[in-house]
Design brief:
The structure holds 3 protein chains of 3 kinds.
Chain A (H helix, E strand, L loop, with lengths): L6 H19 L6 H25 L4 E8 L4 E7 L1 H24 L6 H20 L3 H19 L6 H32 L4 H6 L1 H6 L3 H15 L8 H4 L5 H7 L4 H11 L1 H4 L3 H23 L4 H22 L2 H32 L15 H15 L5 H19 L4 H26 L16 H19 L1 H4 L1 H12 L16 H18 L1 H11 L5 H23 L4 H22 L15 H19 L4 H21 L3 H24 L6 E2 L2 H26 L7 H12 L4 H9 L1 H22 L23 H24 L7 H19 L1 H7 L4 H21 L23 H41 L1
Antiparallel strand pairs in A: 1-2
Chain B lengths: L1 H20 L4 H26 L5 E5 L8 E5 L1 H23 L9 H17 L3 H20 L4 H32 L4 H10 L2 H22 L7 H8 L2 H7 L2 H16 L12 H21 L3 H22 L2 H31 L16 H16 L5 H13 L5 H28 L12 H4 L7 H11 L1 H7 L1 H16 L1 H10 L9
Antiparallel strand pairs in B: 1-2
Helix pairs in contact in B: 1-2, 1-4, 2-3, 2-4, 3-4, 3-10, 3-14, 3-19, 4-5, 5-6, 6-8, 6-9, 7-22, 8-11, 9-10, 9-13, 10-14, 11-13, 12-13, 12-17, 13-14, 13-17, 14-15, 14-16, 14-19, 14-21, 15-17
Chain C lengths: L1 H19 L4 H21 L21 H32 L13 E2 L5 H18 L1
Helix pairs in contact in C: 1-2, 2-3
The chains are: A mainly alpha, B mainly alpha, C mainly alpha.
Chain lengths: ~950, ~525, ~140
Amino acid sequence: MTLLISNLPIVTLLPFFGAIFAARASSYNRVASAWVAAIVTLLASALLIPSSLAVFAGETVIQSWSWIPAIGLEFAFRLDGLALLFACLILGIGLLVILYARYYLAAKDSMGRFFAYLLIFMGSMLGIVLSENILQLLVFWELTSLSSFLLISYWQHRQDARDGASMALVITGGGGLALLAAVLLLGNIVGSYNLSDVLAAGELVRSDELYLPILILFLVGVFTKSAQFPFHFWLPHAMAAPTPVSAYLHSATMVKAGIFLLARFFPVFAGTPEWTWLVGGAGLITLVMGAYMALFKHDIKGLLAYSTISHLGLITLLFGFGTHLAAVAAIFHIINHATFKASLFMVAGIIDHETGSRDMRKLNGLFKYMPHTAVLAIISSAAMAGVPLLNGFLSKEMFFEQTVSAVYDAPFMIIVLILVLLAAIFAVAYSLRFIHDVFFNGDSIDLPKTPHEPPTLMRIPVDLLVLICLAVGIFPMFFVAPMLAAAVAGSLQAAPPDYSLAIWHGFNLPLVMSMVALALGVVVYMLRDRLFKWHDRRMSDLDARIIYHFIYNSITTMASAITRSFDKGSLQNAIAWIIGTAFVAGVIGFMSVASPILGPRELLPVDGVSIAAALVLIGASIMTVVFHQQRLVALVMVGVVGLIVVLLFVKFSAPDLALTQLSVEIVTIILLLLALHFLPQTSPKELGRLRISRDVIISVMSGVGVMVLSMAVMSRDFVPISDFFLANAVPGGGGTNVVNVILVDFRGTDTLGEIVVLALAGLGIYALIDGLKLYAPAHDENGLNWCEDNHPPIMQALTRLLFPLMIMVAVFIFIRGHNLPGGGFIAGLIAAVALIIQYLANGISWTAQRLRIDMHWIIGIGLLIATFTGLVSMLLGYPFMTTTYTYLTWPIVGKFEVASAFVFDLGVFLVVVGATVMILVQLGRLSDTSHKRQQHLESK
Amino acid sequence: MHLAAWSVFLPLIAGFIVLFAKAKGLLWQRVLNLLSVVVLVLLSIVLIIESSSGVHQVYLLGNWAAPFGIVLVLDQLSALMIAITSALALAALIYAIATNTDKQGAHFHVLFMLILFGLNGAFLTGDLFNLFVFFEVLLLASYGLLLHGGGRLRTKAGLHYVIINMVGATLFLFAVGALYGVLGTLNIADMATKVALLPEQDLGLVAAAGLLLLVVFGTKAALFPLYLWMPTAYSNTSASVAALFAIMTKVGLYAIIRVHGTVFGAEAGSLANYHMPWLLGLGMITLMLAAFGVMASRRLREQVSYLVLASIATMLIAVGLNNPLALSASFYYMIHSTLMAGGLFLLADIISRGRGTFKDRFESAYAMPGAVLIGAMFMYGAIAMTGIPPLSGFFGKILILSAALEHQWSGLVLAVILVAGFLMIITMARTGSLLFYKVLDSDETHNPPEDNDVSRESPNRISTITVIGLFALSPILVIFAQPITAFTESVAKQQFDSQGYIQSVLSKQPVKAEKE
Amino acid sequence: MEWLVALVIGVLTASGVYLTMRARTFPVVLGLTLLAYGVNVFLFAMGRLTIGHPAVIDPAAVNYSDPLPQALVLTAIVIAFGMTAFLIVLALKARSELGNDHVDGLDLAEDEVPLKKNAVTRAHEKYLKLIKKKRKE
């Protein structure tokens, strides 16, 4: 019997797989998917039978597998009376709906999509009722919201369908999230997400301080799903769905999911005043309001929608009473409502289908066209009204009984009694209207089609449902008692109280109430025309939907407002935020610990020269800021700053830095000059006082911050790891210039990364400029033409002489680099400068003729050399980038010791040359072409 | 352990080989590139297995012991990051080739390889300045990729991206400098030991530098108020690059976990975990703003970018919760969100190609070719991304939420995550019904007028399969949640054991020469 | 001396930050350049200041300046150079694509006005007009 230990998950998942087949099937044959759906449903029901026997025998079937132990999520299923009852409703009514829908859907509607959605929905519902683990229950809960969205928006080209669907999703989905919170908190209190544990821990939960918040979150989930006030309004709009969907969602499934949770968690939450007030209150309001609204709907589906809301309210109110007997009544009414409401929706569908209208002001006297359907409708709406000998009557009696007994407990409940009676009267009235207006009451007014009976098979589901209504109504003990008993036991987790399902309880108050309701209901119906007028005058503009849309839109507009106000798409804004945040972060960080700003370290003496240099630098950088609109001036100032920085490096014994800085400086300035040629010579003036002052404040703050930070560090003593480098440079790295040894040996990987950056810059720029044409003005900002005459001959001669010299310098610097200031970078940059000067002095074409190498290759080869020197050591069993110097056993020691670092440095050299030259030459060539183009254009 | 080093240097070597292959033509570059990415994927799987032993594997570059030389450290987290990156890279590359994105400019494949070099290096290095260098490598490569193909908006977005990242680089140097100036070292593990022993009067500087570093990484990870670069950059670059960029924000997150988690870990005395409240608080603000951004978006790609922002915010919150369960949850969520985000970016591109002149603007257009399949895929992606059951997003969220329950701010965290999720769900529903339901032609056959047909591209088979391939990982994450969460838990455990990291880095001895 | 250097770093940073927050690409480039100078000096200063002791091993030397920050700065300089070069070219591309050199691609931000044209420009414009007239005649 391996099946019996895993049939519940199969039952649940079967519809999901069925959905896939249903979707595919339609492509072979329209009806095929309907068949698939039906077969799947039957199969699921069949699989359920063996376990259901066990349930009737009084046990609870639980099948569970471990899933995410970390959070106590198990793949767990549970079948007890309550679950079984709902499973039967879902599958049974589901089957009838499938049969019905097969005839309902028009030729142009895709059967495959419909039945696939329907099966997904069915599976989700089964998942809800069969879940043992409440997290898993939640998964299916959200799935119902999702699949109902698909079902309601099935006629996707219709605006009302789309709106109704999204409204349903918003409300029920949102409720689902509230439920999720409730479930998480609940599980946290109980220490497990398994129903068995949760149901057992009712006392614990009710005594917890989080009880009320959890209850509220839970109820939000329930009420949204079951369309309880104030979340009821989505349900009428969901009527835009095809009628089979309405028949399914609003009789047995979707809206009953919430009710199911009420029944399910009854032992956990019920029995407290909070429960009674919240649940009972919402139920009562919904009951009355729904009943009232139903009477005034001219659309038959609208009427049914509101009557559904009202009946759900009734059930909720019963649970709200919190007594076991009330729970019995509630569960009984669940069954009855499911049966008669499903049949009524189907009838409405038939009418719509056969007449093309649902408006009760047009539909009249259909009895003579479709007597059979009419009879069915009459019976089931009588059940809805609570006429004796029908199932609706029985549960309504129990309901009245409960209300009465509640009054005995608390006299003020008399109000409830009155309201309940009022609702009952309206119920009778609208049921009556449904029958009389549609099937009698004169003749129809300009119907699109001439009505006639539907195809027999389309009517069969209704026949069956009505039969059930009658059967339950007349022989309750025989047809419904066992199921009900099991369900009640499952819900209460206790022995059911003793109740009787007899039709005749003697002449008592509930019976009187029923009679009164029936009588007054008829009266109200008689007065309907006046009521309608009054309603249209007073109440017509009373609609929760308006509020919903108001909230929805205001949230959207607020969202946009906030987003646009922060994410302006302005770079200056973004940078201001970042730098501001950095400053704040630094300050807060420093403040978070009580440590002095300055340390004890003694400082170096100041000398006049340094002060002078510093003043020049400060002056220059401030000038840059002041004259930044006059771009050339600013550029010159930046150059000055750079040079002073070079001096600074010299002064504080960093010759390598000085050399590098100097050569980079030169190249950068050349680049900027080239660039400036293509850019406006001036920036526009800024008037934004606010922004400017903001920027000044931010920059001054950050300047001061950085100054303090650097001073704070420099005034402290520290023990750097550098002594190791100083100690090991010669023995370990084989070079006396420690900086260079660090670059090519100790931290060679940094250097590797850095030349990759340079290479990337070169390639990236190449890619950028590739195919780029710039506007190169023939004359500058002030209208003065650019100097036309070509490269000055003296300079040409000079540079051509200089070239070999500079290359020699580069080589020299490169070779000495390992032991004295110098090395790959500096050498590379010098060589690059040498080449660039050639370009500048002799023009691109001239140089290009003589220098026929593609810089891509230089870069590539450089990277290759640098990397492979690293790889060699790997071959010899040493880590990547190990310099050959580190192992003395290597043959020809001495000559070789410097070599590997040297080779690496050569790679650096090549990449630097390649990248730098590529960048500048690209730019230069660009200016060349653009100029020619420009002159060409202007000559035209 | 050489393998880990290879995962860094293979892309580099492949990079310049592809550069040489330029002469041979695009086909060669494509083949080489694909080959190397596939190798990387396999390699990363091996690395995950290798690292699963739970010991940190240390690799001394240049054979110099830490803290003097630069070390690569392989642990489960870095292995995981490399695996995600390679998987994403594969998808992005296939898509780029399928849509001929790589033809739209020079050096696409070289940049692609070198960004992988930067990424993997950043995930493995144990040295703060070296991390900076690798950041710069992947940034410059990303500049090139971001701008690849050109166009007005793209250039503007690129300009912002480059400038902001240069500012970020400057901040990074300030932070590193200050840390070196106080601690006298650059090795992360060594810093941790130094911080633990630091006298009170020097602690303030370290705290300041630490938060400065948080700002730097926060900018990369798109943390409020530093994320402004992110939506524009992601929504304006080419699809495959955007997909690849789904990992870029995670680099910032990784850096926070690695650097701050180690240096300011449990042993850091009065600075222990002092950055966590910031992550949590700012993460929650980011999440709300991201949700608003999703609602306010006017284009699909912008919306997807904000969805990605939301996912990264969720992860930041999880990290900020600062307990092993939450961290493990954030890793689970990272696997999910990175891959789904990649897929969604690609899908958004397919959609905007399919809508012809309407692109991905939120206006109702004519139904796109293959609307049923694409629509289903979109719904799938939206479900996964917004965290609705039954896909992985929901379970990631559940993991994070249940990890939050013990935290003192649990109520707030719950509220923020759920409300933000709700806003995103309703918005995505609206988007879906606008793109696929509210089509211009009313009849079900969806035949737009011929004149409009020209610009509408029907989805290219390979690119569709790529997206499906990425999406297919979501159910796997759900069905095999047990082993996967077990894995992420052990990853998280290893992160919380910062001592283990420090010990194994500092105790690693260089290889001795044969005879000495 | 430290104060002086700190001051220099501060001023470089401040002016760099200010220019970086300007609305036009060229000043931004200059700003980032200044910022780079600032951070390089800062990084260098983190090894503390020493005068006259280059980190070149030499038996006579008593002590050395800290070589590590120097190596770092060297790397930083080169990286900054690469970045700046890229940014410059990108600025050019942006100008050609966006038609102007505003960082947000605006022709004139709402708080900007073009600088006053100087005498030469005005003269030249007149001159151009004259030529046009002549051409027409």
